[in-house]
Design brief:
Number of strands: 11
Structural class: mainly beta
Number of helices: 0
Shape: globular
Largest sheet: 7 strands, mixed
Order of helices and strands: EEEEEEEEEEE
Helix content: under 10%
Length: 129
């Protein structure tokens, strides 16, 4: 069973930076894709960044392009979301998610919550103005 555990959330002032980590275990992830999603109160869950574990293209929501960066390390199996120039509207619970059996043909749908098979419990990020 895939287990995902997020860490690194917290309170930061506008303009500051945070790095979220997602420790993944339970599988070999070479054929997986992963994404970072967020959900603010009263809003739908949205993908902010996604990529394939094997590398290649990365995908970002327009609202975070140029500010957020998704990356991963093999040892240990960890996915990161580096968040710079944070804004109050970035305040949300951030979730790490993985999709099994990913192929590049699925890229157009990768940023949809429905594309993901496994989810972490989330990490709260609060950006104060």
């Amino acid at each position: 069973q895939v287990q995902l555990v997020e860490s690194g959330g917290g309170l930061v002032q506008a303009g500051g930076s945070l790095r979220l980590s997602c420790a993944a275990s339970g599988r070999t992830f070479s054929s997986y894709a992963m994404g970072w999603f967020r959900q603010a109160p009263g809003k739908e869950r949205e993908c902010v960044a996604a990529m394939a574990w094997s590398g290649g293209d990365t995908y970002y929501a327009d609202s975070v392009k140029g500010r957020f960066t998704i990356s991963r390390d093999n040892a240990p199996n960890t996915v990161y979301l580096q968040m710079n120039s944070l804004k109050p509207e970035d305040t949300a619970v951030y979730y790490c998610a993985f999709a099994a059996g990913y192929t590049p043909a699925q890229a157009p749908a990768l940023m949809s919550p429905g594309a993901m098979d496994y989810w972490g419990k989330g990490a709260l990020v609060t950006v104060s103005s």
